[in-house]
Amino acid sequence: MSGLRGNSPADDTTIVRCENLVHVFGVPGSEVAALSGVDFTVRSGEMVALLGPSGAGKSTLLWHLAGLLRPTAGTVDVNGHRLTGMSSSDLASFRLREIGVVLQNAGRNLLPYLSAIDNIAQVQAPVNRSAKSKRSRAFDLLDAVGIAEVAHRRAGRLSGGEQQRLALAVALANDPALLLADEPTSQLDPVSAASVVELIRAANADLGTTVVVVTHDSTVGAALGRTVTIRDGRRSLPIIAAAR
Ligand code: ADP
Ligand code: MG
User: Fold this and answer.
1) What is the largest distance, in Å, between two alpha-carbon atoms of the chain?
2) Most buried residue, 45, 124, 147, 231, by most Cβ within 10 Å?
3) Ligand 1, atom 10: nearest CA belongs to which residue?
4) Average pLDDT of every residue of the chain
5) How far apart are CA 160 and CA 204, in angstroms?
6) How many CB atoms lie within 10 A of CB 89?
7) What does the DSSP assignment read for 86-116?
8) Any atom of ligand 1 within 6 Å of the Cβ of 24
9) Quick one: which atom of ligand 1 is closest to the CA of 54?
10) What is the pLDDT of residues 17-33, one digit of tens each?
11) Which DSSP category does 85 fall into?
12) For residues 187 and 192, what is the distance between their CA atoms, to the nearest angstrom?
């Protein structure tokens, strides 16, 4: 089993808590243990950068925090809810209201036939705002990520970098308690990457959004608060270690 060192203990302010999280992909005879007993805790209001080599299990862990995978063993709690026992529909509505997710492949976060602005407007469906204020919020977010000029272009027609920025705007649309982003700057030039990091930091500072970002970019890691590294000594036995 993998061990966790130096992580913060759970308390009243814990927003994310994984205990002995195991995820095995595949079928009997050809299993891959992507997570082999991970313990991971994030306090409310923290910004955590998740680092580690390719294949270490970073994306798998993020999917679990978003309630997008069912663990082979172990538990995941987010904002006081045990995701492990929730129905798929309860998970979907919980995610829409409380978690903003940017998956690694930016296009997967978007509805390709809707315009950029409509992608942000439709995700606000559960929020009690007028249609007008939803669109104005959508414009503000497009402006903040620097793609206001493509507001009416279909998401599927945007470049990879524009899709990545739109995905972050969608993830922030409902002021989530927890923002999860997987390599959110991987397709961006340094200036655009810096503006994305600024937007994430502003959500954290202004709204108290807790942030977990998977990144290879050391400048992104340095701009966040705490660094957690997942290591995969052997592919089937990743070890997670935390350092302040
Ligand atoms: P990272 O994001 O750190 O690069 P991943 O979480 O994507 O790592 O993958 C961890 C391990 O699990 C890798 O060995 C990967 O090949 C494997 N894996 C990920 N997704 C699947 C899947 N859907 N089916 C089978 N194996 C998978
Ligand atoms: Mg990944």
Assistant:
1) 55
2) 147
3) 57
4) 86
5) 25
6) 8
7) --HHHHHHHHHHHEEEE-SSGGGGS-TTSBH
8) no
9) 4
10) 999 999 999 888 888 88
11) G
12) 9
